[in-house]
Design brief:
The chain is mostly helical. It contains four helices and no strands. The N and C termini lie far apart (106 Å).
Length: 192
Amino acid sequence: MIDASTSALVVAIVGVLGTLTSGALAHRGALRAKTLELDHAREERREEREAQERHDLREARRASYATFNQSLRQHHAALFSHHRALTSGEPPAPGPLAETEETRQVLRGVYAEVQMVASDEVLKRGGDLFHLLGRIYTALRAESPDGTDHLAEAKDHLDRASEMLYEARQTMRSDLGITDLPIERPADHGIF
């Protein structure tokens, strides 16, 4: 049999152990809660940083696409004006030629920049158009004895480039998530 003093001693030991254990368990729980809180805060910061990076990339793309679209259109228009001047039969004036060269140089710089932020699909469509405009530029600067072969070829390419302008713009808009319209230009859409 256990006497009262032994029982009191056992109860006291169990009480002290309980008090010490509860303090240790409370401290461990607080550490675990703090660790979870820090992990959660770290995850939130990572998600915010990734969201900001996505936003920054989208804004860079939007600005780059706007400049690229404008430069493509301006160079196409300058090539079209240069073609019109050549087919008029008059000697080429320095204005259209200088404008064509200027828009070509601007487009080359913009294209180099857009290559760093554009999606693959935008690069394909925009690059195809960029290279076609280069072939048109070369054809318009070529000199042939009668002056008609390269001009007819350039006109065909200008017409195709007009279609491709729409397609490139729609691809850029689609990449930015701002349109559900088809990439191909509708038959009743204007030239430019």
